[in-house]
Amino acid sequence: MLDRGKISVLQMCLSMYLMVGATAILIIPAITAKEAKQDMWISPFWGSLSGFLAVWLAWSLYRLTPGKSIIQTGEAVLGPRLGKAAALLYILFLVHGAGLIVREYGEFIVGTILLKTPIVVVMGSIVLTAAFAVRSGIEVLGRFSLLLGPLFGLFLIGIVLLLIPRYEPTHMLPVMENGLRPSLAGAVTPLTWFMEFLFISFLFPHLRAEETHKALRAGMWAVALMLVTMVIANLSALFLFGEITGRMFFPVFNASHYISMAEFLEHLDAMVMALWVMGGFFQISMWYYVTVISVAQCFHLSDYRPIVYSVGILIIVFSLWLAPGFADLINLFTTSEPFYSATMQILLPALTLIIGLIKRRRRPLSAEAEKVVNRKGNG
Amino acid sequence: MKWVGVAALTVLALVLAWYELPRLTAEMKRERTVFLVITVTGWGLGSLLIFFPEMPGLTQLVDFLYRPLYPLIGKGSGNAGE
Questions:
Q1: Which residues span the membrane (chain B) (predicted)?
Q2: Pairs of CB atoms within 8 A across A/B
Q3: What is the pTM of this model?
Q4: Which residues of B touch A188 (CB under 8 A)?
Q5: B69 CA: distance to closest CA in chain A (Å)
Q6: A3 in any annotated domain
Q7: Could you tell me the residue ranges of all domains in chain B?
Q8: Chain A contact for B80, CB < 8 A?
Q9: Which of A188-192, A375-379, B43-47 bottoms out in mean pLDDT, i.e. has the lowest?
């Protein structure tokens, strides 16, 4: 195995939560609000369905070929040639996805605090920092998630609670004025985000053996946690801004400007920004890690560390290549990105799973797979 | 200014090669190949982007592939602007 690090189920759960989390709270509320208006808090419920499906797919593929990530499962199930083709498609998607997140982070920083810094500098420094984390391996990332996850949750709850005096819950009325349609239309972007939970597949092999049976439940918990977070984030943006949420870029961040408690707790944006830099750092590290591991597994490298920095350059290049400006980036999320994500994160794994199940019925995929089948038969 | 960017990127790629390549032993041929391919791809694409920032890429390809499906999510059809 490339990375011998071991993580606990809790670390896996929090890592996945943070891998999806930071940008989900930053960018999604505005995009959802455009379509769903006052029903924007319902959209994450529809959106989370793809998350649960993705975790289930990743787990089923893992059961089919234990100890393998989707890249290796693809090769075991589809054969060396088709498997490699699928792996290359995944790598392209991952570099694209990592680039997307680096860009979101960069646009956020450049758009809110470092107004005069070139975006390349902002993105370059975060990718370099992430590169150090990636080189340290999954164990370090897992432990960091344990540190950051609760902090992230507490901060978010803190913002939401401190804003309570300013809320106007009437903004959410009338609920479902136009039926389910607006909330479903607003769910397209959350659906895209939740699909990212498929990459939990890269964490399953690192679970301690005695905890593997809890993996599926932990993955589902991560999705549920994300769902609750998104509903809370959307609700607080809605209560605070009402329908103009859709015209903002970063509603939850803007919301933190409005915190004012007893003329003492004010100007918390710097704290919030610090939190987002950490969250963004972890999210970028996870995507970066998964990308690097995919490349290493695809080409059967003995070590993933030599390619970390080179992949970083590629990620930055892709992040600049994606779209000329932030508005084009948002446009991407509401047009091609949902379909591209669905193809790579739901359709392709589902197809692999179906082919794998058919093949296993004829003959076991490998010695390992056979062992599991026997164990199940005996147990 | 553009050449400065390319020069910086070149220096970056060279520093990377100087740092990583000596660590790869003679048996790690595959690692070396993959490293070189990725670094050169990153360097090449990056340099091209400095000169042609609007160069079509994956975004345009994906957009082309999925455009017929946009009406499914209410984009590209008549009521998109609503």
A1: 33-52
A2: 94
A3: 0.90
A4: 73
A5: 8
A6: no
A7: 2-81
A8: no
A9: A375-379
